[in-house]
Specification:
2 copies of one chain form a homodimer. By secondary structure, chain A is of the alpha/beta class. Chain A has 2 domains: 247 residues, 3-Layer(aba) Sandwich (Aldehyde Dehydrogenase, Chain A, domain 1), CATH 3.40.605; 150 residues, Aldehyde Dehydrogenase, Chain A, domain 2. In chain A, a hairpin with a 5-residue loop joins strand 1 and strand 2. The longest helix of chain A has 21 residues.
Chain lengths: 419, 419
């Protein structure tokens, strides 16, 4: 079989498996998850060996050290993967929940119930643990999954998927519920994106080129895990000490992630006292500042001039753009014009200003007096996460188990016909 | 401006209007809806005159009489449109509803609230009242809408949209919240489908060619209102009198709609008594029957042989395909293989068989002992309908006000930072 045939065959096998998986009860799915955790533990040596191949290739390709570090598995990280699987087994199963039900005047009983989506494609470029995370969340919710990971972790991904499939087989579930495309050919992305008869939804996590390749061809819904150009706005009525803590946390605690701060907006009435202190602290922490004239005047020549492009840039690094604004409205306008609708925060003591900001900023997550870093399935209490959707439909923000389900209507009657 | 520029300009104007509209409260939106109803009433003569042009063109193009009838407006139908607008004004507003809220151990208060989607594109081929239905449901939910109707109703659509915009203006809302593409050039569909920066979702109602044109280019979520290949399965434990009433109703009451019956499946144990009686009644009602060998043997030569293509065909006419099956499982397999996952029913007195069918048939709406004709926003009690989604995400089945909203997370803190 050529690549097209192989992947189309995956589609049919996954569809068949999804029908079976949808019929399993929570207990059967949890037993499979425990067997998958056991298999990851039992096959640790094989997985680490495969991972070593990826590391050697990455070093050969002179990938950045931070990327190689993210790629690397060791006994501790593998134990983390195993633990995550057991944690998902322990989470409540959203499938079967009755979202709402009502009776019509003609006696029809209508129930809106939560059901699996069917077959989910996951196209990603990231650490090997995403292979496991995505697969187990799909299994828990009764979905089959077709995984297409990045080339840099291909050996690790194959070894992990093999272990998970072994777990399914051991628990007597159809192993085709988890399929991994065993090639790094980007053509696979185009093929998957066009298989709307066998793939119901694609979750796409990766850089712009990957997401563009999916979007250009996709015929089914695509949930993008894309960039976060996140803002903190320090209002004239902010507690400046709290504001500084939030800004430092949002920028510095883990700058390489999508919910980290990229642009600081400060009300002009507090710009001088706030930026003098906070600017110095950011510089002390090796943050490169890029500001408008006003910011540069207050903080000094250590601040580079910000260009128009800076306002739309996700640095994912110790770089921060900063701007002084006239009002909360001007801050909202800036965020709507340049932001990516991911996570944005206001720091203020004024409840009315805060509520205006919360309601008018059209982002997945809007904060009042808290760091943007909390946009995360774990921090939300979801217990797991397949990604953070930057789309508005069907999932927005942290995406966990419920977001891997849809609904259908069950209608029970006694012979009703329409007049 | 050329077509591309015109439609892109629509996108920017709609985006701006959507930001304003999202901030209006229910009262302001309802006032605008009442003004829109008034405008439709006051401009009746202009709208009917425009409609007469469409009718003349349709007659010139020798469109089928049924289609011309659907296209035609008169005083009574226009009064119906006016009444529908006032009815939507009276419905509860889903925007602002708190879907769920919880507190995290660190004190963060997380609220998941219902918000407008933003800008919705509606691409359709149908009666002129869809122009009004789509526009008012979007206004009610705080969304701006870009409408692109079919060429056969272009004059009516322009006149109706003008009246609705007049209503918005009268109520001092931004009239760009309702924009109608004033051309029948199909290129407009391609342009809209690529405007993912200014259109958040497309609702697509129409034939296969139209939907294919949208899907081939779309970069944003598309909700399709596509075909319904609906089934009724008569189980061996069915009340055969009830089964016949349901089959006749589902096939004959209004055969030209998506929730009408297209394929009848009958358990072999009851095939003979059921098909003898029900088959005769269907023939008496001028229904053309296309059956497998078994059906033809029972009902006789009046039944044409069904081809493989019949099982996947949406006739939208007085034609019915019929098949005898070995079991409820075989019926489910047939539906999963050939159906369009729209509306499917089982008639049986056995609760266990019914529940199996309800849970295993992967359709938007699954019925036990009721006609498939109830898949409809009005019949569900939604009070309105923008279409019936044949997609699994973000809306499935009848689509009304709630389905024109999404959600965001509002998070209120007291200075929380991530450790």
């Amino acid at each position: 079989m050529n690549l097209q045939e192989t992947i189309e065959d995956f589609g049919q096998r996954a569809r068949k498996a999804s029908r079976e998986l949808a019929a399993y009860n929570t207990e059967a799915k949890n037993r499979a998850l425990e067997a998958m955790a056991d298999a990851v533990r039992d096959r640790a040596a094989t997985i680490l060996e495969a991972n070593a191949k990826d590391i050697i290739a990455a070093e050969g390709n002179a990938l950045p050290r931070a990327m190689i570090d993210r790629l690397r598995l060791d006994a501790k990280r593998l134990a983390g993967i195993e633990r995550d699987i057991r944690n998902v087994a322990a989470l409540p199963d959203p499938v079967g929940a009755i979202i709402s039900q009502w009776e019509r005047p003609n006696g029809l009983q209508i129930s809106k119930v939560r059901v699996p989506i069917g077959v989910i494609g996951v196209i990603y470029e990231s650490r090997p643990n995403v292979t496991s995370d995505a697969a187990i969340l799909c299994t828990k919710t009764g979905n089959a999954v077709i995984l297409r990971g990045g080339s840099e972790s291909i050996h690790s991904n194959i070894a992990i998927a093999d272990a998970l499939r072994h777990g399914l087989r051991y628990a007597r579930l159809r192993e085709d519920a988890i399929l991994l495309v065993p090639t790094t050919d980007r053509e696979a992305v185009r093929i998957m994106a066009q298989m709307d008869r066998s793939i119901d939804m694609i979750v796409s996590r990766g850089g712009q080129a990957l997401i563009e390749a999916v979007l250009a061809h996709a015929r089914m819904p695509v949930i993008k895990h894309y960039q976060g150009v996140c803002h903190v706005y320090v209002d004239r009525e902010a507690d400046l000490g709290m504001a500084q803590e939030i800004v430092i946390n949002a920028k510095c605690q883990r700058p390489g992630v999508c919910n980290a701060l990229e642009t600081l907006l400060v009300h002009r009435d507090v710009a001088e006292p706030f930026l003098q202190k906070c600017g110095a602290e950011l510089l002390r922490r090796d943050v490169e500042l890029r500001g408008d004239q006003h910011v540069r005047k207050i903080v000094g020549d250590a601040v580079k001039p910000a260009s128009e492009a800076d306002w739309t840039t996700e640095y994912l690094d110790l770089i921060l753009s900063a701007r002084v604004v006239e009002s909360a409205d001007a801050a909202i306008d800036h965020i709507e014009k340049y932001g990516s609708h991911h996570s944005d925060a206001i720091v203020t003591g004024n409840k009315a200003t805060a509520e205006q900001f919360l309601h008018r900023v059209d982002s997945a997550t809007v904060y009042w007096n808290a760091s943007t870093r909390f946009t995360d399935g774990g921090e939300f209490g979801f217990g797991a996460e397949i990604g953070i959707s930057t789309d508005k439909l069907h999932a927005r923000g942290p995406m966990a188990l419920e977001e891997l389900t849809t609904y259908k209507y069950l209608i029970r009657g006694t012979g009703q016909i329409r007049r």
